[in-house]
């Protein structure tokens, strides 16, 4: 009993020791968070001096928080007081002797970059000296943590990505202040080269550069419709030019490709012209760029992808129009496989291009850092509704891929679908285009086509066994008919297996007997014509034999039911 009590005590000691060890491991994190949140010492970068050569910095409430600094800087910029605005910059990367001279110029350029290259998130800009983020959820690792370095935005130059930052500095014995980081100030000339006003803008009169509304200048209010008009004229000219070339080439392959490229080329001309004018002539403000950049990139990506796909589509359509009959022939088995595989690859390329285009738009526009992300997040429920509505389309797309890779129906195959003899002309995402023997087009939903039964007459072998039935009198001489049938088989070019062509009595009833005529054709199209000629020939042969028999009781070939009824009526 004593041993059990001792063992029980040892077990409890082990548990208590383990818990103490875990608490000790967690304690440093807790103490660090507490010290970071509640320490009386400010979280700053300690420096010996701030802009000693400039002689001016913001003070008091102008730079005690990141939001206050941004407000004071933008206000000084609106008043074009660049000397005062330079007090918001950490000029420590410059020699002390150059800070007073270059500070105002850097402030002017930084003000222009902030207006044009980024959109200020005033709601998310901390208004606390310690820059603690009080708006994020507790799942954010930075929630509730003081900061001394704050990134406002990330913008792309010609060769790299640059961040615009603020940091918190303190001189020994002084109050902590927020300034635009020295690294950001050092990058200002390069950023201004990329986002600053063009030479054309700088020559505008002052009243055009004056603010209008929604952070826009008057020249932007006037220029945006003009740029759109120029882009539309470029798109219209592209459309007209391609249409003229289409008339020149007609239905040939270049003409078909150009006709398919009209719309995407016009979109590309519109977006490209718009981008060039924005880059060379005008540089709009950040609020406008937030909306225009994703739209411009999206249009360019769509247009380039559409041009690429239009070429493939035109080639496939020309093949379908000019060779669909030839593809049904036995010797084109490999061609049917090739064009069906090419059609499947085309659909895969479309899906990949769509995904690639979405990725390019998201990356190039930094949508997660702009208004576009808010729009996407706000449309989340709408996206779910669209996804639910598009589930049938997604099912059709998977079904079309199934047809293409399983090759249950290939381009050029002859099939019987819903009682119609058709050629598979095109396999699309959601529909199959079937061409009937009389040149009608049946648009069959892919899901319906896959889920229902259909006959593929060229899946394994393009040759087709054709049957014809004749109802003859019981007294008909079948051997005489076989001789006529053998004569027809010898002279008929549409029969590929003459040795196995045969005539058989397959059934009979009170009215007569049924003869079945069997012959194999090399392909469905040839088989249909042969099938009709075979029936016509044998009916004519039976009529000749029947006429030669005269009125004697036997033999007789055509049924006598109508004549018997007339005779009975006369006797009655």
Report on this model:
Residues 393-459 form the Mechanosensitive ion channel MscS domain. Keywords: Membrane, Transmembrane, Transmembrane helix. The chain crosses the membrane at residues 216-245, 257-277, 297-316, 344-365, 371-390. With 572 residues, the protein is an alpha+beta fold. It folds into three domains: 46-196, no CATH class; 285-456, no CATH class; 464-564, Alpha-Beta Plaits (2-Layer Sandwich), CATH 3.30.70.100. Helix content is 56%, strand content 15%. A five-stranded antiparallel β-sheet has the order 10-9-8-7-11, sandwiched between helices. Strands 1, 2, 3 and 4 form a four-stranded mixed β-sheet that branches. A three-stranded antiparallel β-sheet has the order 12-14-13, covered by helices on one side. Helix 9 packs antiparallel against helix 10 and helix 17 crosses helix 18 (524-548). The protein is elongated and about 135 Å long. Residues 1-5, 21-39, 368-379 and 564-569 have low confidence and may be disordered.
Helix content: 55-70%
Tally of domains: 3
Largest sheet: 5 strands, antiparallel
Oligomer: single chain
- Rounded to the nearest angstrom, the radius of gyration is 42 Å
* Extended strand count: 14
GO molecular function: mechanosensitive monoatomic ion channel activity
Keywords: Membrane, Transmembrane, Transmembrane helix
Organism: Croceicoccus pelagius
Main location: membrane
């Amino acid at each position: 009993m004593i041993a059990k009590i001792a063992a029980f005590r040892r077990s409890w000691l082990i548990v208590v020791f383990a818990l103490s060890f875990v608490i000790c491991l967690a304690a440093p994190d807790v103490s660090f968070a507490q010290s970071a949140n509640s320490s009386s010492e400010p979280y700053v970068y300690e420096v010996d001096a701030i802009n000693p050569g400039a002689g001016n910095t913001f003070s008091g409430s102008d730079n005690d928080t990141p939001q206050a600094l941004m407000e004071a800087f933008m206000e000084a910029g609106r008043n074009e007081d660049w000397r005062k605005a330079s007090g918001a910059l950490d000029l420590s990367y410059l020699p002390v002797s150059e800070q007073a001279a270059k500070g105002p110029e850097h402030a002017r350029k930084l003000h222009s970059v902030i207006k044009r290259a980024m959109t200020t998130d005033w709601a998310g800009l901390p208004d606390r000296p310690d820059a603690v983020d009080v708006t994020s959820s507790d799942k954010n690792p930075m929630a509730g943590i003081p900061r001394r370095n704050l990134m406002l935005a990330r913008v792309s130059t010609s060769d790299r990505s640059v961040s615009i930052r603020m940091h918190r500095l303190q001189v020994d014995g002084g109050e902590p202040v927020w300034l635009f980081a020295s690294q950001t100030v050092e990058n200002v000339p390069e950023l201004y080269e990329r986002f600053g006003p063009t030479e054309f803008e700088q020559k505008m009169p002052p009243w055009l550069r004056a603010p209008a509304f929604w952070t826009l200048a008057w020249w932007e209010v006037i220029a945006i419709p003009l740029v759109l008009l120029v882009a539309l004229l470029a798109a219209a000219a592209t459309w007209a030019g391609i249409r003229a070339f289409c008339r020149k080439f007609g239905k040939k392959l270049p003409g078909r490709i150009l006709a398919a490229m009209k719309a995407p080329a016009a979109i590309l001309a519109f977006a490209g012209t718009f981008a060039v004018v924005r880059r060379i002539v005008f540089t709009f403000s950040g609020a406008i760029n937030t909306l225009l950049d994703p739209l411009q990139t999206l249009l360019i990506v769509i247009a380039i992808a559409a041009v690429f796909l239009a070429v493939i589509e035109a080639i496939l359509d020309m093949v379908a129009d000019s060779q669909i009959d030839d593809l049904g022939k036995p010797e084109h088995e490999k061609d049917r496989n090739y064009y069906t595989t090419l059609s499947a690859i085309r659909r895969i390329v479309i899906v990949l291009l769509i995904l690639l285009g979405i990725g390019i738009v998201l990356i190039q526009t930094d949508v997660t850092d702009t208004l576009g992300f808010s729009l996407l997040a706000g449309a989340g429920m709408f996206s779910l509704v669209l996804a639910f509505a598009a589930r049938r389309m997604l099912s059709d797309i998977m079904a079309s891929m199934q047809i293409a890779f399983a090759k249950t129906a290939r381009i050029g195959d002859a099939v019987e679908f819903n009682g119609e003899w058709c050629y598979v002309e095109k396999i699309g995402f959601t529909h199959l285009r079937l061409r009937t023997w009389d040149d009608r087009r049946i648009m069959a939903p892919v899901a319906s086509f896959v889920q229902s039964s259909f006959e593929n007459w060229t899946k394994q072998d393009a040759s087709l066994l054709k049957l014809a039935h004749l109802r003859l009198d019981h007294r008909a001489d079948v051997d005489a008919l076989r001789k006529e049938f053998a004569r027809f088989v010898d002279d008929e070019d549409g029969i590929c297996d003459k040795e196995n062509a045969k005539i058989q009595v397959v059934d009979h009833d009170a009215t007569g007997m049924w003869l079945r005529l069997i012959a194999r054709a090399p392909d469905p199209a040839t088989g249909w014509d042969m099938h009709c000629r075979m029936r016509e020939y044998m009916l004519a042969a039976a009529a000749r034999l029947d006429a030669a028999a005269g009125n004697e009781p036997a033999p007789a070939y055509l049924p006598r039911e109508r004549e018997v009824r007339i005779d009975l009526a006369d006797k009655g």
